[in-house]
């Protein structure tokens, strides 16, 4: 379910970046604090500068939104396929070519059997 970079608009990039922040924050790891082991949320989103990207995508200035879109388009291919798939599933994007005929999102015609 690889999404082409050209299909991202500032609005869809904002939606994906916001969801990516949630996906990355859901990852937890154990850390010892004062001798006691605690579970802390993942901070990869901050390391990837997602808050800055999201702020740019939310900007009222077109130039800032374009910069945010460029930043997001540079970040997207570096993510693992599993992370990209989680984000796309969370925002409701799908590849219509992978859908079953019974899926209501599919609007393809049924395959014609050449033997009939």
Write a brief structural summary.
By secondary structure, the protein is mainly alpha-helical.
Note poorly predicted spans: none
Q: What gap, in angstroms, lies between the N and C termini?
A: 33 Å
Report the sheet-strand fraction: 5-15%
Radius of gyration equals: 19 Å
Average per-residue pLDDT, rounded, comes to 81
Structural class: mainly alpha
Gross geometry: flat
Number of strands: 2
List the secondary-structure elements in sequence, H or E: HEEHHHH
**Can you list the strand order of the major beta sheet?**
1-2
Summed up, the helix count is: 5
Q: What can you tell me about this protein's structure?
A:
- By secondary structure, the protein is mostly helical.
- Helix content is 46%, strand content 10%.
- Strands 1-2 form a two-stranded antiparallel sheet.
- Helix 1 runs antiparallel to helix 3 and helix 1 packs across helix 5.
- The two termini are 33 Å apart.
List keywords for this structure.
single chain; 116 residues; mainly alpha; 5 helices
Question: What does the secondary structure layout of this molecule look like, with pairings?
Answer:
Blueprint: H1 10-26, E1 28-33, E2 36-41, H2 44-47, H3 50-57, H4 62-75, H5 81-90
Antiparallel strand pairs: 1-2
Helix pairs in contact: 1-3, 1-4, 1-5, 3-4
């Amino acid at each position: 379910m690889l999404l082409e970079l050209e299909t991202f608009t500032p609005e869809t990039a904002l939606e994906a970046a916001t969801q990516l922040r949630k996906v990355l924050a859901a990852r937890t790891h154990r850390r010892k604090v004062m001798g006691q082991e605690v579970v802390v949320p993942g901070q990869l989103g901050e390391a990837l500068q997602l808050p800055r990207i999201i702020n740019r995508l939310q900007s009222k200035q077109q130039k800032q939104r374009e910069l945010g879109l460029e930043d997001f388009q540079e970040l997207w291919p570096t993510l693992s396929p599993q992370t990209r798939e989680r984000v796309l599933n969370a925002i409701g994007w799908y590849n219509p070519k992978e859908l079953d005929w019974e899926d209501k999102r599919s609007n393809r015609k049924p395959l014609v059997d050449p033997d009939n």
